[in-house]
Amino acid sequence: MSPPRGNRLSEDRTEGLPAGPSELDTFLRRPGPCALVIRGAPGTGKSTLALTLLASFPGRRILVTSRVGEEEVRAQYPWLPRGAPGPGGAIEVVDLSRVPERAASEASTAGPAREIGGAGSRLSEEELPGLRWLPLPLRRVWKALSYDQPTMLAIDSWDSIVEQYVGPSVGRERDLPDREELERVLLRLLQVGSIHLVMVLEREEPNHLDFMVDAVAVTSQDLVDERLERWLRLVKVRGTPLQSPVTPFTLHEARFTPIEPVAAAAPPLPRECDPSPGARPGWIWPGNSDYAQAFGWLPLGRYSLVGLDPVAPEFMIRILNLPVGIHALSHGSRILYVPSLSSLKGEVVAAFQHILPAEEFERRVLILSPNPAPDRPWEVSPAYVSGMARDRTSPVPPITNLVGHFLEEGATPDQPSLGVINLASFRVLSDLMGNRLTPDTLPGLIQAELQGKPTHFVLYGQRGDPLLESMSGLASVHLEFRNRHGRVFLRGLLPHTPNYVMEARGTRPYSLVPVV
Fold this sequence. Notes:
The protein has helices spanning 22-27, 46-56, 70-76, 136-143, 158-165, 168-174, 179-189, 209-212, 289-295, 315-330, 347-352, 358-364, 382-390, 399-408, 423-432, 442-450, 466-470, and strands at residues 34-40, 60-65, 92-95, 151-156, 195-201, 215-224, 227-237, 246-250, 257-258, 283-284, 298-299, 302-308, 335-338, 365-368, 379-380, 417-422, 455-462, 477-484, 487-494, 500-503, 511-514. The protein is of the alpha/beta class. Helix 14 packs parallel to helix 16.
């Protein structure tokens, strides 16, 4: 995102292509030669990261694949650039997946390798020290390089090539260099031109290559609370400051997408919602297609519950709730809004006032705020609430009665009402009215106000608040915003869902990108 400028995915640096981690992106745009090792266990995203870096490289781009063939590579990564090879065009693919296993010295029987073209100055085999020790297909690649043109060469995977061509037994029988000597040859060959080398290794543990190359990136994955998390750890990047040495990412749609830290400032508030696919009796459209797919619609006579980590920004809750409010007001409904104690005065008004004229707004929107703004007469002030509490001519009604009366007036199944309520503020307002809310009494009061009525409540608060915890048992949907290393994920406890990253940019109110 220019994510919610809070938690957002990084901007693509090449239109239509995924974006790599900014530190590696900066590193690989420095003049070559340089070498990067990407290592990690199988299935952790190494190949996707290598292809992401390769696709965004501004010069010539070559992939040497021993893992799968060219057709499989292009099928698995449909976003790869197409067209003629060259800057901005297709990646040149050298397919070693079907080359017979042969020792590097057996040039006459090493099997076919796809020749690649190229123009510009080249060096002979005699001018490339140690080239004769490389496997024949790599020799052909190297001899076809243009050394006056910036080039990125990605080898996926180096382990597989070494094992096929110069494994331990072959090396002893043929008097070939061992693996470490071969790797030194490969890195020395970089010095003859502006070459960026990316080597993919099929293991997470460090080895001697870490000391020989310029940068090391490690991919890993883990299950936390039964949900997948993917992490990229930058072990070293020479000459580049590491702002975020540990970065979570997702492989959604076969793209390596790093998840950026949450920004301090809120993005512009959504001013529209996704259109409803049609009427659904007994339910409210949540205003967002991704939300509907992940968590469903909002049932009438029930409530949703959202918990927020104390360090997660409040504006993420606003971004989540605004689309359903915009939809409700646009379809003739009423809204009760109880903003958080930290909310700025009038910001709820600013979010909705473009939908309705002022007189209609005042009739259909009730904002109960412990922090009123003098120029907002529709905000209920503590003095007003306290005045109600001081009126002893009749029993003091609980705040839930005030809420229920406003929402019931004019509500129908076709025009249901919506309440968006911060539980901490709700507790303060109730105390001002002389009606103390407790975890024992709140669930019953909320249920009484909702049962059989064309209304849905969205209740939210900080995780760990006893009022929030008391409401978890009867919620139709229970969501959580969790902070992990400065990144905020949204996940469903009910229904159980994977982690999502909320992205807010463009014309849509927000998108939910699953961590897969």
